[in-house]
User: What shape does this take?
Amino acid sequence: MKKLFIPLVVEIFKVLSYLPLMSSFGKGMYSSCLFGIASGFYYGKKYKEAISAYDKALNYSVGMENEPPLNIAFENAYVSLGKMYENGLGTNKDEIKAEEYYLRAGSRELND
Assistant: This one.
């Protein structure tokens, strides 16, 4: 099952990246999918792919940080990125970058 899951997620990720989305509803759905795919990579221990997918999701979703359910997705993304940089998972260890991500997640909790 695991061998099928990762290639399938990669293909879904590729397809989603080409969808033309104009409405705010479509943009929100696309963002949710990106965060979901990134989380799948993270929990599947595909950390390099997770970092790339989280970066793409965060960059695409700028301006939607306070819209439910994306507000929770942003917090989870920042915490997951912090853990990966803190522990060198899929990237070089970088405690400064990890702290920045943790602070972003913490400031989101304070602002909500």
Remarks:
- Residues 2-111 form one domain.
